[in-house]
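S1.2 Input.
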Amino acid sequence: TSEKKLLQIILLGQPELRDMLAQTELRQLAQRITARYHLQSLNRVELGAYVSCRLAVAGRKPRLFSDKALNRLYKLSGGVPRLINLLSDRALLGAYASNSDQVEVEHIKRANYEILGESRSAWERFVFQYGYRVVGTALGITLFVGLGVWSKPFLDSITPFVDSSVNSVVEVTKSPEKTISHINEQKDEVDVDQSSALQTHALVLKPENGEQVYINDFEEALSSSPESLVAYVEAPNPDTRLLQQVMEKSAPKSAGSIPLAAVSVDLGGREKGKKDKLQAFQSLFESWNLNYVEEPFQLACEFAQVNGLACLHKQGNWRSLIRIDRPAVLTLFNNQGQKIHVALLKIEGDFALVEHSGEKFRTSLDDIDRYWLGEYSVIWQLPPYKSGIVTPGQLKEGAWLEKGLAEINPETKDLSLQEQVIEFQRSMGLVPDGIAGSLTLIQMNNLLETDAPKLLGNS
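S1.3 Output.
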């Protein structure tokens, strides 16, 4: 029309389309293209994620391709999606035909042979795959031998100078008095430096007997740094009354343990680690007696589901976190505004046991609150009817809820199941919608004495 264009044209093609549009006679068309996007070949990491995504869309969440099979798939396809699809589809058919539970390297090789063919002889394939290595090795050996022959006259000419230098060194080391005293002076200086560094950075604990105990494991965490300007104002304040109530119910500390108030760690000075989120979830799974290892494309929440657990991601405050009463992964912001992930393992009084980047330490709730904007994730135990672990005689949803709610409050057993859920939710301060969601099931687990780690210990 006179105001706007009604037709949009999208050009799709192979890389040759780019060369065609670069021709001089098509410059007017090329100048009218407002956006360009080029799909490049996938790299190794993207290939693995691509295969996992395609399998997930088809309904397969656990891994189906081994690492070696993915490496071979990347080498043969070059990261081209069309070839990835062809080889993967054929390899899946080969794995099925051989009654294999996983796609291995042999299936990828066989799929490549069946799709692309292999007409060359064994000698031609050897030359094609390894010929450049043989030629490179031969050139390297020739160059090395040639340099040795060429440099021999030069080395012979400088030998007298080297011998005289060695003799002078031997003569100096024959008078040890000055050397030993000089070494002692250096040692004293090193001892002084180490002592001052220890007094500056080491953590000092003062027990009742008056002796000072130095702990050197927290030197990096105790380095001074300015307070966070990112999260100080926006961080939610803890509900001190609720904290006081729940802390009074906490189990007594074991005799001889170090008071938590004696330790102070500046969370704002913690640096962002490449794997701090992975390590935080590993620490959470350790509290469930599970070993979560780093495997490509295996998410923590998928690992939890395989073991009868589930993830809960929330935005809240201390009140909501303490009500759930499970160890959690907190998302904090350090002094540089970087997002870091720490595992909150236990709360005792006004202090907490925290792990970050594989290092456990104790810090105050106020310090956590300064850098925490309320984002956290917890692991909780699924009821049997939601769990992927099937056991003999397993109860269905209605039967399990009725049995658990009757055990918690026998007075409501004559009500309908929905009414029992609503009454339980009201008693726990939850939204009484009659739906047994995550928070409702977690509170039921808390009262049914399930074998789950608690954030407040044996409270």
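S1.4 Remarks. Confidence is low (pLDDT under 50) at residues 161-184, 186-262.
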